[in-house]
Amino acid sequence: MALDCSFLKLKGRTTKRLNHPIRRNSFYVNSIFHAILIHTSIPHTNPFPSHTWGLNSSYGVFLAHYLSTNTFPGATRLEFAFVGGLSISMSLLVSPLATMTTRLYGTRTTLLIGVFLETMSLIGASFATKIWHLFLSQGVCFGWGMGFLFVGSVVIVPQWFTTQRSLANGISASGSGLGGLIYSLAANSMIQNISLGWAFRILGIVACFVNCACAFLIKDRNKQIGSSQLSFDYRLFRRMEFLLLLVFGFLSMLGYIVLLFSLPNYAQSVGLTAKQGSIIGAVLNLGQALGRPPIGYFSDSMGRINMAGTMTFFAGLFPLVIWIPAKSFGVLIFFALIGGTVAGTFWAIVAPVWTEVLGLVDLPASLSITWLVLVLPTTFSEAIALQIVSSNKGDYLGAQLFAGFMYIGAAGFVWLVRTWKIGELEEKAALMHTSPEKMDPVTDAVGPENGETGEVMKVEGKSPFIKRLFKWQKV
Fold first, then answer.
1. Is 447 contained in some domain?
2. Which residues neighbour 328 within 8 Å (Cβ) at sequence distance 6 or greater?
3. How far apart are CA 188 and CA 199, in angstroms?
4. 3-state SS, one letter per residue, for 4-36
5. 3-state DSSP assignment of residue 444
6. What gap in Å lies between CA 39 and CA 30, rounded to an integer?
7. What angle do CA 211, 216, 217 make, to 5 degrees?
8. What's this model's pTM, rounded to 2 decimal places?
9. Which of 51, 86, 187, 338 could form a disulfide with 207 if both were Cys (CB 3.0 to 4.6 A apart)?
10. Residue 424 domain-assigned?
């Protein structure tokens, strides 16, 4: 698996193969395993997916409980929606600080800060008696903890793979779905049989233990690859392809958050029980766990950008054709499973696609900017959906249409990125007197020279835009 470290010159531009040899040992396997565990605990996605993003994915169960009881007197549906939105948006807002912490103090310190904040947030939420207590604990503090864990681990898996990078990232990201499945069922059971407070405390203890273990065992390759670890690089905004990726992520999150948090409450709105709603939410997360590794696997064989666009389109199609007419438990289970396989496509492909488009060196800075851009949709998406539901007297049709069309719009923008990428490969193939199909989308990328990020080479050889829009090529 050793990589060529040669440097090639193309018309004054530098083509860098920056990956350094990867030893044939268990480090890369360990990185995936620990990434899965982290994602499970952090309510959502990455090398710590299960105990971060996975934990957060269970908020739909908490939301359904809040809306069906009077646990926090005087709190509105909109306020509860903001609690869930804040948990994700704060994790993204803190990303530049987490990136800077990684650069100054290392990955392990960043992860341990995240463990501390996440644990304190869950313990603090267990004593909440007013809605603003939830804003600060389950919303803001939890989001900060998730952000340090997420940012500290998201770039590690791509560093350890030269081939099958998307598959590795998909397996890692599946931890968020696995965690969401486990935590959704566990949280509902604990809320119903013990209490809301003790449900928070138990979740906090479990997440603390697992994430601490992962933080001490995981290993990065930041020094070997020369990762920039910049919190913000304004030069990336000169690159049209990066702007298109940002819009893709923005629209994807508008649809994803609605689907993730609304399904359990929608189930209760059509006459199902709270337990059935939690099962439907759990199956949605099961779908994410099952769907992300295949998305990663076929991304490596069919093209990462191709898969991103296709699966995002299906993520928008399924709510429109299955969720809207779904009124029974069986149909909702089916939708949750099949919709879940593609709902989190963005999280399965974000690191590999950003690497392919922008390169490993600019990956940390580009991801930091991406997380900041996603603050707005993750904060307001569920609030928008519940406001639509309220204005329609409890009818979810408007929210369902909103989720579906946001995904379809996102697919359109990533397809434009695909069109750009094909043109880039055609230009470089013309310079190297070879076929575009023989170009490697990552290692044959022309890197910036003298810090001038994103200058585009102007050479003959690029086919017309319309032709590239419909041309089949692995990218």
1. no
2. none
3. 9
4. CCCEEEECCEEEECCCCCCCCCCHHHHHHHHHH
5. coil
6. 14
7. 95
8. 0.77
9. 51
10. no
